[in-house]
Amino acid sequence: MTSELLNLLVDKALDGAAPSRAEALALLAGPEPLIDVIAAGSRVRREFFGMRVKLNTIVNMKSGLCPEDCGYCSQRLGSESEVLKYSWISPDEAARIAEDAVRAGAKRVCLVASGRGPGERDITRIENTIAAIKADNPNVEICACLGLLNEGQAQRLAAAGAHAYSHNLNTAEARYSEICTTHTFADRVDTLTRAGAAGLSPCSGAIFGMGESDEDVVDVAIALRELDPDSVPVNFLIPFEGTPLGNRWDLTPQRCLRILALFRFFFPDVEVRLAGGREIHLRSLQPLALHLANSIFLGDYLTSEGQPGIDDHQMITDAGFTVEGAHEQTLPQPRHDLVALRRRGAGTDLPANA
Ligand code: SF4
């Protein structure tokens, strides 16, 4: 690796500094051979995460029939995708699904529900689900992903034992209204801020392959970095027939890997998660992505099927990585220290941090 740009990006990342806009654009468009870009990103990945791969699983608590109109989503208002549609599954059913995933190596269980945001009864459902999962797996990380949060809801989730809250920014603010008209980019930032203030570990990422320019990719990376998330899912559009973006197949494996490398440079010591769409867009190059991302989803996605878990384990082993153990810490210690577990406010006898 001889590129001045790549050496600079590695040095900055190891110091915790982000790429400049010009550097980021050059990485996406530039002449550096892809294998050199991956090798540079891999140096940063190995510095903070070694060769560990964290496994996560999704439990779709409530599927389809959403009143929102996110153009990429198979569950959106007016979607003609023939995805599963059901109302809330029970806490026991969710716990059974989670148990299988934990046995297969998942450290984090993401409880996801379609909809604009949870009502108070929905929060109660999630509280009961967290209790059911934790009864048998007290150390598993639970992440809730329930849409826009109202006052006090993040506190209830934290008090119930949720570890994280996930809400993606999805794309650059300037083009947000092109992919969704029923809520705004600012609404999403607001929910992430509420989650972080309640002591939940913020998880927020993006979806690529929706017609964005290189500038849009860099804009959303910058916006995400400003939120200082602990985990950043990088999704590649799954083009569902029956949705407005159902015909978009813009991505190449090379493009996906450059985007992943860019995110590793923007988030050197943060959990960068290879998320939806990896199988269909990275295809035979999936294992190379493990040199950049330190985390993947195991099993199926919300409404589409993923690669069999056994193949994921084989891919990880074949590429020389190991599955992160239940008692291994994901984030490097300095960042880990920034996560202050809440010991005041809801669920305690102490006043809230108001
Ligand atoms: S992404 Fe979430 S809010 Fe948007 S349509 Fe899909 S389920 Fe609804």
UniProtKB/TrEMBL annotation:
It is an enzyme of class 2 (transferase). Its EC number is 2.8.1.6. InterPro entries: Aldolase_TIM (IPR013785), BATS_dom (IPR010722), Biotin_synth/BioAB (IPR002684), Biotin_synthase (IPR024177), Elp3/MiaA/NifB-like_rSAM (IPR006638), rSAM (IPR007197), rSAM_sf (IPR058240). HAMAP family: BioB. This is Biotin synthase. Binds 1 [2Fe-2S] cluster. The cluster is coordinated with 3 cysteines and 1 arginine. Binds 1 [4Fe-4S] cluster. The cluster is coordinated with 3 cysteines and an exchangeable S-adenosyl-L-methionine. Residues 48-278 form the Radical SAM core domain. Pathway: Cofactor biosynthesis; biotin biosynthesis; biotin from 7,8-diaminononanoate: step 2/2. The lineage of its organism: Bacteria, Bacillati, Actinomycetota, Actinomycetes, Mycobacteriales. [4Fe-4S] cluster binds at C66, C70, C73. It catalyses: (4R,5S)-dethiobiotin + (sulfur carrier)-SH + 2 reduced [2Fe-2S]-[ferredoxin] + 2 S-adenosyl-L-methionine = (sulfur carrier)-H + biotin + 2 5'-deoxyadenosine + 2 L-methionine + 2 oxidized [2Fe-2S]-[ferredoxin]. SMART domains: BATS (SM00876), Elp3 (SM00729). The gene is bioB.
